[in-house]
Design goal:
hydrolase activity, globular, Phosphoesterase, EC 3.1.4.-, five-stranded mixed β-sheet, Phosphodiesterase_MJ0936/Vps29, 160 residues, Metallo-depent_PP-like, alpha/beta
Length: 160
């Protein structure tokens, strides 16, 4: 299963329509995960034209975005938690384990800083932002490959 992870698209200020380098990756995806700060629901509609989208609400998302604050789902046998997560970087792995005790992977956003970290039992993954790189050298997204309940690939890909 090919999964594209996004976060912090910040439309319409930063995302007027799907950027071509993002479209290259979402085209052919089986699922898209968006970890919040969509800002306008039309982004989800646009992404849904490529693949089914699972989204959580970020701190910049208003009531017009119909999304939960957290989400737990299983994709091809892999248990995934999703949250925007405005908490501190220090202690994030144990905090995510407490929040998602059965998850194998947690996809989160907020910081715009790409991160792929594991403690052996839990992997946490922030795809960064494809449109608002802040202090990062590039805008980024995440590519995940899931096979029979196992995350076989997790990659942060520059798109700017």
């Amino acid at each position: 299963m090919r999964v594209v992870a996004l976060s912090d698209t910040h439309a319409p200020r930063r995302w007027r329509s799907c950027p071509p380098r993002v479209a290259e990756h979402v085209r052919g995806a089986d699922v898209i995960l968006h970890a919040g700060d969509v800002c306008v629901p039309s982004v989800i509609d646009e992404l849904a034209a490529y693949a089914p989208v699972h989204v959580v609400k970020g701190n910049n998302d208003g009531p017009d975005l119909d999304a939960p604050a957290t989400l737990e789902l299983t994709l091809d046998g892999l248990r995934i938690g999703m949250i925007h997560d405005g908490g501190p970087a220090k202690g994030r792995l144990p905090r995510m384990r407490r929040r998602f005790p059965r998850a194998d992977l947690v996809v989160f956003g907020h910081s715009h800083i790409p991160l792929d970290e594991s403690d052996g039992d839990l992997r946490i993954f922030n795809p960064g932002s494809p449109t608002d790189r802040r202090r990062q050298p590039h805008g980024t997204l995440g590519l995940l490959t899931i096979e029979d309940g196992t995350l076989t690939r997790a990659e942060i890909v520059p798109v700017t």
